[in-house]
């Protein structure tokens, strides 16, 4: 099997003393699933196993930003895994890429405990195990006198130590129900996430007094069916504005939770009772008519293609001279890491936060030059058409208003690859040719929760072919009005003339003039319709 | 009609109207639901999660059926609408976003926009909704 990926790379240096479970030397490869964080880990690994022609043991599964990664040994395993790329379909029918490349030895292997250390660890753990409660107390494990006395460093933040501990648990306490990891300075739970395979019955978990900064860490152990959880004393507890939001966030991840931080929780609201959509089912797009739909969709396609290409001239053409534009980002204290939207921060005109009337005027961009300049300075984007949900909510002869909800990806800059959600509200007015001018444009951008991130975007729809024949109801109505004014005929007849001449205004005009001079137009054509 | 005010004044007026209106709207929606339709024009339209509702009677029925709400707005923006586009009355586009809970059920994020139209009375200006578009964002 041809491994083109690394044909020209330096061969991976074999490290001294690096060995596999059975002692033979091997080289290591990392396997990465971008956006792996949005998938259920068990489902993901099972899918990969079933598509892989060679059975393998994943080592040190963890998350790197939004991706999932693990390690395997042996080039043959690596190449078999490469073949899995784009073979697995997720729920949204997107094919999941799997990237494989050579890597250094994973930590748990590199820093693997020696057999005598493992033996001492086992003895220490046995001392801390309460068989009657099937409970293991690992509080402050690194300063355990037994371990210290034997000069063994069990720092649970280290993958190797956590892995060794979990292996010991699996071998010796397979029916473990309760685990206390309080005061171990844990700042991430990647290592602990293996517990889902190693100690599946754990129902009580104490993570208090550690250094977990974000509730998102708990997503890594979401597979555990916890009934009791302790988290107090972690920085993440301070990230919530109030107790009920905190409880809700935890419960979202552990639906069977009965007790949090020692407090019994009120019985869970059943999550399958959904919303007031019993009133009206929630629909997606709303368009007044098919013609409006094609007009709006065509506008959006052209607009976003122009926008994503950074075509300033094109953008100028889309806006009215005196158009207005403003941009907002959300304002709420529990917004995770506002620095992730920092490129939008200075332009944000969220009036819930911005009270200065002078700034409120300044941040409203007025005139198409100002607007296009502002847009071109924002991070470059790629919009995902397949994610668009559009509402056409108001129209008159002079005005067509619609909103688009969707997703885009930043394609350069410090947040490259970040996916954002947006809602854009447009008020447009018909332009002289078959298009719309934007009069008002309001853009609201916010961050998307990891689960909603799309790993691949649709290829942008190719530019729609422009035809000189206007096929949209909107322009047709404009034409009818104009024709009626010029000819003196009523709207009905004007429409008839235009239709009969395939909406070619000039030709219809010529036909009309000709027939008029010949006196062949009936009187009723000029009568006002009641 | 010539622009009787300059742009800055338009924006100021829009901002003040929007802020005041939004406070009243959500308060009424949450606490005095039966009075909500007074904030709408007779021919106002509402698009609620893709469902189209128009006319005071339909709006009244709709808001009656909607369970009790608890809104929390965390984004507000507004823009004046150029008179070329909305010819007769001064109009403001208002955009809001935040969270809502209906009848104590789970929280939804929502996005809403309004077209507000000024109705002048001898004493002051009353703003009413000409169009309302509401969508969950989950």
UniProtKB/TrEMBL annotation, chain A:
Residues 1-25 are annotated as: Disordered. Residues 474-529 form the TAP-C domain. The keyword Transferase does not apply. InterPro entries: Leu-rich_rpt, LRR_dom_sf, NTF2-like_dom_sf, NTF2_dom, Nuclear_transport_factor_2_euk, Nucleotide-bd_a/b_plait_sf, NXF1/2/3/5-like_LRR, NXF_fam. PROSITE patterns: LRR (PS51450), NTF2_DOMAIN (PS50177), TAP_C (PS51281). GO terms for molecular function: RNA binding. Its main location: cytoplasm. The keyword Metal-binding does not apply. GO terms for biological process: poly(A)+ mRNA export from nucleus. It is found in: Cytoplasm; Nucleus, Nucleoplasm. Keywords: Cytoplasm, Leucine-rich repeat, mRNA transport, Nucleus, Repeat, Transport. GO terms for cellular component: cytoplasm; nucleoplasm. Residues 295-445 form the NTF2 domain. Belongs to the NXF family. This is Nuclear RNA export factor 2. The gene is LOC102977204.
From TrEMBL, chain B:
One of its GO terms (cellular component) is nucleus. CDD domains: NTF2 (cd00780). It is found in: Cytoplasm; Nucleus. GO terms for biological process: mRNA transport; nucleocytoplasmic transport; protein transport. InterPro entries: NTF2, NTF2-like_dom_sf, NTF2_dom, Nuclear_transport_factor_2_euk. Keywords: Cytoplasm, Nucleus, Protein transport, Transport. The keyword Ribosomal protein does not apply. The keyword Iron-sulfur does not apply. Residues 17-136 form the NTF2 domain. Has a role in nuclear-cytoplasmic transport of proteins and mRNAs. This is NTF2-related export protein. It comes from Physeter macrocephalus. The gene is LOC102976925.
